[in-house]
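Q&A log
Question type: sequence-to-structure
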Amino acid sequence: MDFIKFKIMKTKMKFILMLICLIAVSEIHAQSIAVAPIKTFGLFTNSTTATRLTQLELVKLNKYAVLDKFDINELADPEKFDSCFGKTCLVEYGKTLGTDFIVSGNIDGLGDKIVVNLKIIDVKNEEVAKNKSVEFDNQEHELQRMIGIVLELMHDLTPEPETMKRLAYKNEVIVSNNVDRINNSGPRMGVAYTVGDLNEFMVRDEKQGGLDIAPVVSNLGYQWEGQYVGTENFSALVECLVMFTGLEQGKFIPSISLLNGYRFGKGGWEFAFGPSFSLAKYSKGFFAVDGTFGAQGKFWNSNEFFQAGYSDASFAETGDEWGKYLDTRGNVSLATRWIIGFGRTFQSGALNVPVNLFYSSQKGGGMLGLSVGFNIVRTKKNINSK
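Response status: OK
Response body:
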């Protein structure tokens, strides 16, 4: 029994020694590989750094004897092969280095993505052994991991899923591509006609608290807009307009509007709505409709009424009702309106010309008008950018 055990142990030792020898021999005769210059475009990372990162990731694969830059400099003139990217040149480079394989490729920064394209040349057979191109999200600080993923995929290895997911280029239809996006931020000008109580306030005599101007007024201002959803044929927008009304008639009436807008199709049709805010003066009073307390149609605020010696009792005889009216002699308060607009953006090259009809509604009246703007498209910006 002891003799049999001894023979078994001896056989195991021989097997282990043979395995160690085979591993050592395979390491000694591992196929060699070198990295030719990796071309970069549209990145801060230069070609030298990209080449070095590729060498580091090849070493991690543990499949080749990787020549480092010192080995390469001893065997070949780096300047001679500095622009070596074609197969014929790479084969010559590989033969000069005496290597089995040589890696080349390019890494391009294209807008919101980075494309890593690598190929491995079989020097002996003078052919492309492996070739792989992968698109990544534009996270240049993760360039080494991107190169590592491409090399793993070239050798049928599975990259770490979470890293792959985090670096993947998300080629989404909504938001990310920014296809045919129109940004109409720019100056606005237009004209509007007032109706209802607002019209009455515009034409009312200054002595009665009116503006005493024509009911047709100009609008001049600026619009800012941001896109929060966008596809090729639809955009959802948030818009901010600062407008000044009546400047041509010596009046300064500012307002600010916050709108939610939608733009449809390649024709640039759009629809927007939202609140508008401004400051205005109001008084409590009434309009004399029968001439009892003055000329018919005259606006009486409460101060005028009581200063004229009238009382609540005498006012009640007329049947008129007190109300809150626009009055330049009154107290300042916040005025709100609701704006609805519809229009189209006309395009000519880089020039956008938005034309919109709008109605600004308030209690008892409003303003109907036409607005025109313009802007020049210089660059397209991604709304996901930080």
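Response note: Confidence is low (pLDDT under 50) at residues 24-29, 173-180, 379-386.
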